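Mods, move this if it's the wrong board.
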Amino acid sequence: MSENKHVSHSSLSETEHIDVEAVLAEFDRESNTRHYAGVPKKIVRYFLAAFSVYVFYMNLLSTWPEQIRRASFVGLIIFAAFMLYPARKKSAKKVNYVPWYDIIIGLVGSACFFYYVANFETIARKATRISQFDMVVGLIGIIVIAEVCRRVVGIPILVVAGAFVVYAFSTGYSLTRVVYTLFYTLEGVIGTPIGVCSTFIVLFIILGAFLEKTNIGSFFIDLANSIAGRATGGPAKVAVIASAMEGMYSGSSVANTVGSGSVTIPIMKKTGYDKDFAAAVEAAASTGGQIMPPIMGAAAFLMAEMTELPYATIALAAVFPAILFFSGIFLAVHFEAKKLGLKGLPKESIPNFFKLLLSRGYLLIPILVLIFTMSYGFTPSRAACLAILAAIIVSSFRKETRLSPSAFVDALETGARNTIGVAAACAIAGIIVGIVALTGIGLRLADMLLMLSGGIDILALILTMIACIILGMGVPTTANYVIMATITAPIILKLIPGTPVLAAHMFVFYFGIVADITPPVALAAYAGAAISGGNPIRTGVIATRLAIAAFIIPYIFVLNPTMLLINASFGELVQIVITSMIGMFAISSGLGGFMRKTMPWWQRIPAVAAGVALIDPGLVTDLVGLVVIGLICVLQFASRDKKNMSVSD
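Not the wrong board. Structure tokens:
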């Protein structure tokens, strides 16, 4: 949703110069916008701010039908997109330049959706018997929103949507029927994804923009520095903690990587970490930010809508897997630092934790307001609005964070800018949802995977994982989840009867997200490598190893949903917490090849196996895992290897 560009405390600010905007423009298509100056810049600025105000009006005051709300939202998104995004990257360098054809396409595309708004009741009475003119309008509208998606998000999601549309035609559906479904019903472009985007997601994006203006990202880095800065390999641990906290309001793995990575990656390199490892730490942790409650890149609210489960249930279920994920990265960083003999930052460069909380802890109030109101039963829209109000109020507590009228407009403008890419992706995801509903292709895909897996649960999950990673490459978090939930979650529910709906949706959500660090299309890893000067592919491979928990945990909570706190007793919960943390310790040391000293291969393989057994909730697996890792610990700690021993913490 936004990226932190602020420099952190003391020595963390003494970093090499990083051109954040250039890196974002290279790896985050949403940041590759046109440049304006003078009067045109003001026109664009106030149009975007007005769009944000319109969103507040639409969600808090209007009583319009859903079709009108969603179609008008998409119409404005199209117009804003053609003002901001050029057809090619090179065109973005020209100042105050918008080609005539972009103006025409933008106006025509917007007009198609506002035609639907103006004629909604007439078209609704026609049902599937729309006129030839209606069909042409709908077809143009679909093509234009697809072009918006190409410019802002990229081609991968269009290829997937295009394949589904071709499938609809190949099964005998007419052009009129397909256009009617995708343009004029709530099962297409203006379907559930845009419905959630225009109500919940856009408000949380605006909230993220206001939080950015309060410098909360800088506060998170300082807070993480005060917690872990002095520890062995401190800067890498700071990156993990800061990215986890920033993930509470950031909706982009790439933006999160570049924002905090521009500060943490140079410091990690100076501390002694390999440049590829430093970039991988930031990429893995920033990607994990998308699974961090309470907001989870806004996917939590989509999940609540698509599973028909309370938001509080989803956020609570996501807590423990997220803790395990970040614990795995934290431990991997720790063992790497011990192996290299790296120390933490000097004491004088570390801010005092309690003084930091007393002086700037008030910046957390908007997030606490959000969590409390959502848990208390407020709608996501009203909870987000109250959190925005809280952000405005707390920003006035200190002069350096106080929002001036200009900063207030900046936040509204930034919120609108960051909405465009998400909305475009959600509109195209709606096409996929519409074709699945129209043709029933989801069941056919499930039958195909069932045949390939031979009815073996674990093999079916592996095939589903591969599908999720491929479909999730280069797709923003929210649209990513919509695609996964529409195509692959029903497959799990059919292949493995009895799987809780939440477990299936969390499984596909996790594997859709890790596509950002899984080569070959690992955008977060590429962005981190651009900052570190490392090798993108090697960075992606290391990031995948660091985020290994994200490749293990989803299998566990499908096969044993206790990890998601589904029907879990207090005793079971305590057992899961203890054994799973020991399991992550074993996996991290085994993959890193170091515990107390260097681990030979015959210790590393059993350590990883024991860790997986411990993460799987169950008495037998826990006992086996504890015995194996216990023996390995005895071997590691019983004797000293002076050559390989690291500097003590």
